[in-house]
Amino acid sequence: MESEALIMSDFNWCHGPKCHEEHTVDRVRGVKGSKVLRTRKVPQNKWNEGTKWRYFCSRGCMEQFLHFNLDEFIRLHPRTECLETPINNPIKETHTHDYSWGRHSYTTTKIEVDETR
Ligand SMILES: [Zn+2]
């Protein structure tokens, strides 16, 4: 029986749609006369485990992927109506401080989730 370690890959190809078009030396592969720019490998390690960075070599590649595929994501996960979080009546508080140059006050509004609803 094959062990899990042999089945699991230790890298993902970067999912940036134009990763292989970036002009960097580390992407150059192939023999003389038939060189290519190749999609980068993204090593799977504890630094990118469980994050989006296990699929992308750079922020640019991640943003291009999002740009190219956003409409598809939205079709998969449509928001057809708004969501609401129940809250208690907001409480307005005035804070006053005396400084050497005078009195200064500002207001804050406390917003708390209503756990009973
Ligand atoms: Zn990339």
| DSSP strand content | 15-25%
Oligomeric state:
single chain
Average pLDDT figure: 93
User: SS-based structural class?
Assistant: alpha+beta
Hetero groups in this structure are: zinc ion
Strand segment tally: 6
Biggest sheet: strands, sense, closure? 2 strands, antiparallel
Tell me, briefly, the overall form. elongated
Q: Termini separation (Å)?
A: 52 Å
Q: Can you write the helix and strand succession as a string?
A: HEEEEHEE
Query: How many separate helices?
Result: 2
Enumerate the spans where pLDDT stays under 50 for 5 or more consecutive residues.
none
Q: How are strands sequenced across the largest beta sheet?
A: 1-4
Radius of gyration: 26 Å
Q: Helical percent range?
A: 10-25%
Observed structural traits:
single chain, 117 residues, alpha+beta, two-stranded antiparallel sheet, 6 strands, 24% strand, binds zinc ion
Question: Can you give a write-up of this model?
Answer:
Helices cover 19% and strands 24% of the residues. The strands form 3 sheets. Strands 1-4 form a two-stranded antiparallel ribbon. Strands 2-3 form a two-stranded antiparallel sheet. Strands 5-6 form a two-stranded antiparallel sheet. With 117 residues, it is α+β, with helices and mostly antiparallel strands. The mean pLDDT is 93. The longest helix is centred in the middle third of the chain and has 18 residues, at 59-76.
